Amino acid sequence: MEFWGWVAESLNRLGSRLMLENVYEHHPREILEVFERLRPHNVGLCLDCGHLTAFGRAPLEEWLDELGALIGQLHLHDNWGHKDDHLPMGQGRIDFGRAVCFPQSRAPPPPCRNSGGSPAG
């Protein structure tokens, strides 16, 4: 935690904010403690919808409900729930409805990044 706190403080001094991304966590509560401990350093969550679908066990809605206050960025890409395909939105099984509406509920809205590439063919 010391390292991430140092990185976050360095970025804060430069006018930026450190975002840590979910990867292999099954449930949002698995990373909540990390963000609680880093709260004094203004660290945010980059919620990766593809990762939580491929590796997680909780639905997108649960992640948004439990960690919504920490979300500083959304990483939007699709997959079929088996691997991190980075498909364009709409080319897999993820229902992005709530994720797409989520930024509208925040002031200021968090940036959204769509990194979906071309579907494998």
Task: Walk me through what this model shows.
Helix content is 34%, strand content 14%. It is of the alpha/beta class and 121 residues long. It has a domain at 28-42 and 56-115. α5 links the parallel β3 and β4 (112-114). The longest helix has 12 residues, at 2-13. The radius of gyration is 15 Å and the shape is globular.
Task: Give a short synopsis of this structure.
The protein has 121 residues and is of the alpha/beta class. It has helices at 2-13, 29-37, 49-55, 60-67, 97-101, and strands spanning 19-21, 44-48, 71-76, 112-114.
Set down the secondary structure blueprint:
Layout: H1 2-13, E1 19-21, H2 29-37, E2 44-48, H3 49-55, H4 60-67, E3 71-76, H5 97-101, E4 112-114
Parallel strand pairs: 1-2, 2-3, 3-4
